[in-house]
Automatic annotation (TrEMBL):
Entry keywords, A to Z: Membrane, Transmembrane, Transmembrane helix
One family name in Pfam for this protein: DUF5128
InterPro entries: 6-blade_b-propeller_TolB-like (IPR011042), Quino_amine_DH_bsu (IPR011044)
Source species, domain of life: Bacteria
Keyword presence, Nucleotidyltransferase: no
Name this protein carries in UniProt: 6-bladed beta-propeller
Membrane-spanning intervals of the chain: 6-29
SUPFAM superfamilies xrefs: YVTN repeat-like/Quinoprotein amine dehydrogenase (SSF50969)
Cytoplasm is among the record's keywords: no
Organism: Bacteroides fragilis
Length: 423
């Protein structure tokens, strides 16, 4: 029995226990090696991930640079090129409302300038009257509210009304006086403050809640600084935009009638007869980008040119029209364009010679803009619209407009067509 026990012990020790221990040790060694391999593999994986991440960051940075480069590369417009036609009605882009500006002995409008300063807010309509040197204020139903008649030589008055902006967030009306100063009133026309403009200032536009953009084309009288950003509080110069006006082109006969500063989404579009192309000034960063370049060259000696000019800026597109005194070809008409901001493509719109927007045709002219992005205005005097020559055109107009015109006398304030492109 003892012999059998010894034999069994030796068998278990040398053929079971020792091999088991050896196998276990070998397994542990292999596991340790595997762990090292795994650790090495994980380390290598970490290095790979870091390297891949670095490559991705570099690629993204490179991509981002390309995107900025594309965004900063202006679309090149050729006034003699035929662009694809886009079939659009005005009603495809905008909602139109018609408002009769009611009149009494104190609210009868006189002569409006070629491109009158007008603004529509949530509850009011503001219109500049050039003849009376006044600002007329109506509610959105066309009822007269008050007139700002502050022409004079005092510190709280304007010598010659240039233009204005209704700053609704700050509850102020900012007036630019040709006498080189800004005058600020509250919404009821009460004086608040004034401050001088830099040099001989021609036009201005609201940039943001704190600043305005001012255009001084007579740069030899303004230290060469054509486009400046000023504080609304005191007129302090915040920034000088890097835009140079070398040869100022003056529309002396007033045949063109346009505004060089157009309200746009996120900033201001700047387009002037003296500049080649269209520029965008960012409301937050003050960065200046050229968004449109032009191939058509000016001929200053005889003022022959075709120039692209923004009419309405909406979120996804900009409507353009053309400016010109003498056309490059005798039969070249005024053109209208739809520019797709995302596609960076230009499209030609149907051209209608007369009363286009009243016929639901999207020919928004340079004069049909306001101080508010995406809002256009057409104004129609009863004396013109009720004439015999208009009877043939009348049936093509909106029925709401026809109803208003049929109900009023020939003498009176104009009927407004307020076009909201922010729908």
């Amino acid at each position: 029995m003892l012999i059998y026990s010894v034999v069994a012990y030796l068998f278990l020790k040398y053929f079971v226990y020792i091999p088991f221990c050896f196998s276990s040790a070998r397994w542990l060694i292999l596991q340790y090696q595997n762990f090292k391999n795994v650790r090495d593999m994980l380390n290598r994986l970490n290095y790979f991930i870091m390297l891949a991440g670095l490559l991705v960051l570099v690629a993204c940075s490179s991509n981002s640079g390309k995107q900025v480069e594309v965004a900063n590369t202006p679309f090149v417009y050729d006034g003699l090129k035929e662009y694809p036609v886009k079939e659009l009605k005005l009603s495809d882009l905008a909602v139109s409302d018609y408002v009769l500006l009611k009149d009494d002995e104190n609210s009868l409008l006189g002569r409006l300038p070629t491109n009158p300063c007008m603004q529509v807010t949530e509850d009011r309509i503001y219109i500049q009257d050039e003849e009376q040197q006044a600002i007329f204020i109506f509610d959105r139903q066309g009822n007269p509210l008050l007139q700002m008649r502050h022409k004079g030589g005092g510190p709280q008055e304007w010598a010659s009304l240039n233009s204005f902006y209704v700053d609704s967030p700050n509850k102020e009306i900012i007036v630019l006086d040709w006498a080189k100063k800004f005058i600020v009133y509250d919404l009821n026309g009460k004086f608040k403050r004034s401050f001088p403009t830099p040099g001989c200032s021609w036009k201005f536009a609201n940039l943001n809640d704190e600043a305005v953009l001012i255009y001084c084309p007579f740069t030899n009288r303004n230290n060469g600084e054509a486009v400046c950003i000023l504080s609304k509080k005191d007129g302090k110069k915040l920034y000088v935009c890097p835009i140079t006006i070398d040869n100022f082109v003056w529309d002396s006969e007033g045949r063109i009638g346009y505004e060089p500063l157009k309200p746009a989404y996120g900033g201001i579009l700047f387009s002037d007869l003296s500049l080649k192309g269209v520029y965008f000034i960012d409301a937050e960063t003050y960065e200046v980008k050229q968004v449109i370049d032009e191939m058509t060259e000016y001929k200053f000696e005889n003022a022959e040119f075709v120039k692209l000019h923004p009419a309405i800026d909406a979120k996804d597109y900009t409507l353009y029209t053309t400016l010109g005194t003498k056309w490059l070809t005798p039969d070249m008409p005024m053109n209208y364009y739809y520019f797709d901001k995302k596609e960076q493509k230009m499209y030609t719109l149907k051209n209608e010679t007369g009363w286009a927007v009243l016929k639901d045709i999207c020919n928004v002219q340079r004069t049909r803009t306001t101080n508010t992005p995406g809002i256009g205005i057409g104004y129609y005097w009863p004396s013109t619209m009720k004439g015999e020559s208009m009877q043939a055109e009348k049936e093509q107009f909106d029925s709401r407009f026809r109803a208003i015109m049929d109900s009023i006398p020939e003498e009176g304030n104009p009927v407004l067509q307020i076009m909201n492109f922010n729908k």
